[in-house]
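Hello Y.,

Per our agreement to keep a running log of every chain we model this quarter, I'm adding this entry. I've kept the format consistent with earlier entries: sequence first, then predicted structure.
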Amino acid sequence: MADQKITCTDKNHHHHMCILKDTLAAAELAGFSDKPVVECGICGAKANSVDNICTPVKVWEVGQLS
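Predicted structure for the entry above:
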């Protein structure tokens, strides 16, 4: 994924998993993905909320991915 250019234009991009993984400690980051319901179509990151994903491509019911 490191060689894939991410072109997210969302004004809240700083809240997306691709940025958070580089800025938060692992324990803090876990709180954003401990009950994932959505996956990013760019990097494959899973998150608890579509608000933390650049390009949501899959959405599941709470607990379906656990």
